[in-house]
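Supplementary notes for students who missed Thursday's class. We covered one full example, reproduced here. Read the sequence, then the structure, then the short commentary at the end.
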Amino acid sequence: MATVMKAESVGPVDVAVITFGGEHFDPGVVSAIREIQDKGTVRVVDLSFVRKAADGTVSAAEVADTDVAAEYAGLADEELDLLNDEDLRLLGDDLDPGTAALVVVWENTWAAQLGAALRASSSQVSTLERIPRQVVLDALAALEDER
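Structure (token representation):
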């Protein structure tokens, strides 16, 4: 049973645009997202599909409005509708012709407790950046070279 989101306890919310090498969606991605959701790491709150045909035509659909991939049904824990048609069109415009993307909005539930503690103490995260994967891989290789 889904837990109802409450404003005072909601974690940070991100949008992930997962592009595929063609116009078809990979079911392995569904499994990975479902697994991190089942573990309580994230809560999917909105999910959409975007395609850009070879001729450049963009189409978009919310999971609730499509039969694009039945395995995605029920993945969104709550439907907050944080992405509108214009957002999806703009994302689609950025796709290469002949490709598709899954647009996932998720709450980082792992961070909700920290967020509540920060708010209670009048603290805040002033900077949050993701270190590019290649930088991490290079640091790991350098560490291995030192051993």
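Commentary. The two ends are 48 Å apart (CA to CA). The first helix runs from residue 27 to 38. If anything here is unclear, bring it to office hours.
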